[in-house]
Amino acid sequence: MNKKNKKDRDLVVLATSGSVDDGKSTLIGRLLYDCNELYDDQLAKLEKDENGKVKGEYLAHITDGLSDEREQGITIDVAYRHFSRPERKYIIADVPGHEQYTRNMVTGVSKASIAMILIDARKGLQTQTKRHLFIAGLLETPHIVIVINKMDLVDYSEERYREIKKDVTAFLSKMSVRDLQFIPVSAFKGDMVVNRGENMPWYQGPTILSYLDNIEVSTDNNLIDFRLPIQMTIKIAQDKRGSLGQIRGGVINVGDDVVILPAKTKTKVKEIYVSGEKREQAFNGQSVLLSFENEVDVSRGDVIARANNLPIISNELEASVSWFDDEEDLNIDKTYLLKHGTKTTRAKITDIKYKIDIETLHSEKTKKLSLNEIGRVALRTNDTLGFDVYAKNKNMGSFIIIDELSNKTVGAGMIISRGLFQKDKKVEIDSYKNKGALLWFTGLSGSGKSTIADRLHERLSEIGLQTERLDGDVVREGLSSDLGFSKEDRDKNLDRISFISSLLEKHGVLVSATFVSPYEKKRKEIRKKHKNFIEIFVDTSLGECEKRDVKGLYKKARAGEIENFTGISDKYEKPKNPEIHIKTEKASIDECVEQIVSYLEANNIISK
Amino acid sequence: MNKNNNFSLTHLERLESEAIFIIREAVAEFGKPVMLYSIGKDSSVLLHLAKKAFAPGRIPFPVLHVDTGFKFSEMIDFREKMREKFDLDMIVEKNMSKEAQSFGPEDAHSEEYIFHKKTTPLLKALEENEFDAAFGGARRDEEKSRAKERIFSHRNVDGVWDPKNQRPELWNVYNSRIKKGESMRVFPISNWTEFDIWEYIKRENIEIVPLYFAQKTKLLDRNGVLVRVDEYNVPKEGEKIIEEMARFRTLGCSPSTGAVLSEATTLDEIIEELRQSTISERGTRAIDNNKDSSMEDKKREGYF
């Protein structure tokens, strides 16, 4: 990698959090002090020891900003500070540790690429730590570093360090964390912050500073999916208008075909200005002005995308919601303002699916979300939105909830999926309809065909659509119990399924059939017998299927106990042009279902 | 062949893009925004960003300068030059009340002076013009209480800041809703440091008041603050005039703004000097050093 020169440094946002008295302010003070980031007039106010060094107990005063907080000895808000290294500039989002201020953790990590979570070595894994870990995971923070502080107060015990490390690792095993690091430190004495010190020779890992300086920060620099939420349209000359916004994904060129959402108006990009200068091209993160062919109507809240790569366009969605309001709970049927990107619209809470117990990470049934609670919520918005799921694009997949009376920001949401057909008294279930069709799920054993088809079936039947499931195992137990696994018997089995599903299709049923169906020729044969045949390739690598091995079949096949096992002792011919290609290793079940629903809607198989 | 390299932003580009987004957001969501213009380097950067945010269109809001009457004359000349250069719709507000006029240059350090000469006329101008949003060039690295300031900072009907009642700011979504009579202060360069400002001034070739560059200057040492000899700082009996190469690191009222001895006559030299400096930016301002939480108290009253 090229060494970047001074002008081309990264900008990295680092969120720091801990419980009350974990010594976070001292740690940040230590980091700034030992990095020589403090000025003489700032240092002059702090008491020194006999060697002229600032005393450990005064380091916290460097960062505590507000006077009444200082009196209480706690920080209240997220505080931002800077420090600068030759290769990198840091913005520290310092999150306070008070239990009732979970919202600040969500706020602090929402922009961060690194979350640094402090644990007091004497206390170990506390509820508040679990909350911080959970939130950092929920907000998909790319890097999490666990700082076990106050090691000086546990005699720099390696055993204690390992104990806490084990507890944290066990807790995090239920969540997906991309990158995790543990560092034992004493911010008070200065061990393992900037300097290694001599008290923990048993620890071989990096100090905090060397961790920060050397980590390869993964960014959300999505250059594939072009997204531009429009802030406003202005007049730039006589009869000439320009639309302003910051690109939230992808690359765009002069002359590119685009669609204005939600109206789906097609147009072409005529001119691009990046930060006021005329260019041929612009990319993710840049603030631009675009003008379009044919003077099309573009206004605040619209999203510009490419016709062949659209975000989800819907007025219903499901999201993880973190609730901030200490006065009123989030309730079903209540209406709020929702601000997503540059769009503000009214939104009604149609369902609260569950809330999450932070201690156990289990979900619990609930009718409301109170302050500090996080749950899965379904909403319906007045205006149609163009959004992505949070895991795919943070900016396009997040929103805030505003109380219309008080104007307070009362919640934050991370979109999980299109809220497909919420149960709601006011929406006529009969208003949805579907055509007869056969959804043919093909893929290796263990690829996830049944899981996805079951979830799809469940959601479609909830709103009264005519849908049926044909599952390999079920059919084998009944209809085809006389058949074996030779090529002939497999074909016969598929013929029977094809026959039944064509009857169902004729009567307007949407059939989801899940069969390994490894041969291209056979699948083509079945296709010919159906009016609406939709081939869904559930694409999971053999290695991953074998790792999952839900039914223990791969083990048996490898041991030679099963003959002609697809993937091991028989081939699987990948579909050449499936209608839907699902890559399960890169998407959640909900995202897979979403992909299918988008296709069905776009092709009028289901409609309102 | 790493294509990615061409499609990533440097830290200055990221800060610039974010600031432009914030300026546009406020203009889109508020009926009558205004930009507070202090003539200093941060204001110069802010004005430059506003220009870029709407180019090739023009800046769609007025700028407001609160004049204490004791500003360096070079600052006033520069303000007029910028007014012309950017074709600005500029409002200059001065507190002409008897009370405010009674302050002399020697009072420029005091809390009362700030309140009458800066805070009061600022709030008056905002109210009279019914501005519902005001851009400011404050940065979080300047001072401890600024570190906790939001980018969209809510003010009640009296223009007062309540540090406990600020809205959380997540991702890039800013809650800009206010009730009638309330207002918002908007700080597009919150995330910039003093270094970023200077590097950006250099990169973009932004014009700034010449006082930032070192020149031979006649100075008086008043309680450790080096004030410039001019119409507001007249040598008293027994005071010694020092003539040295000096420049100003921040600009405010002449009687309360200290110069630093410096040989830095170019941007590169200023940046290098800053790198070596051991004194914080606001260390040269007499007003912030009254007591430890002085800036916070002023902010609560409505000062920027």
Overview of this protein structure:
The complex is a heterodimer of chains A (608) and B (304). Chain A has 608 residues and is of the alpha+beta class. Chain A folds into 4 domains: 6-214, P-loop containing nucleotide triphosphate hydrolases (Rossmann fold, 3-Layer(aba) Sandwich); 227-306, Translation factors (Elongation Factor Tu (Ef-tu), domain 3), CATH 2.40.30; 313-417, Translation factors (Elongation Factor Tu (Ef-tu), domain 3, Beta Barrel); 433-607, P-loop containing nucleotide triphosphate hydrolases (Rossmann fold), CATH 3.40.50.300. Chain A has 14 helices and 32 strands. The longest helix of chain A has 20 residues, at 487-506. The radius of gyration of chain A is 28 Å and the shape is globular. Chain B has 304 residues and is α/β, with parallel strands linked by helices. Helix content of chain B is 33%, strand content 15%. Chain B is built from 9 helices and 10 strands. In chain B, the strands form 2 sheets. Chain B has a 6-stranded mixed β-sheet with strand order 3-2-1-4-6-5, with helices on both faces. Chain B has a 4-stranded antiparallel β-sheet with strand order 8-7-9-10, with no helix packed on it. In chain B, strand 1, helix 3 and strand 2 form a beta-alpha-beta unit. In chain B, helix 2 (11-29) packs across helix 3. Residues 286-293 of chain B have low confidence and may be disordered. At the A-B interface, helix 2, strand 2, strand 3, helix 4 and strand 8 of A face helix 2, helix 3 and helix 7 of B.
Q: In short, what is this structure?
A:
The complex is a heterodimer of chains A (608) and B (304). Chain A is of the alpha+beta class.
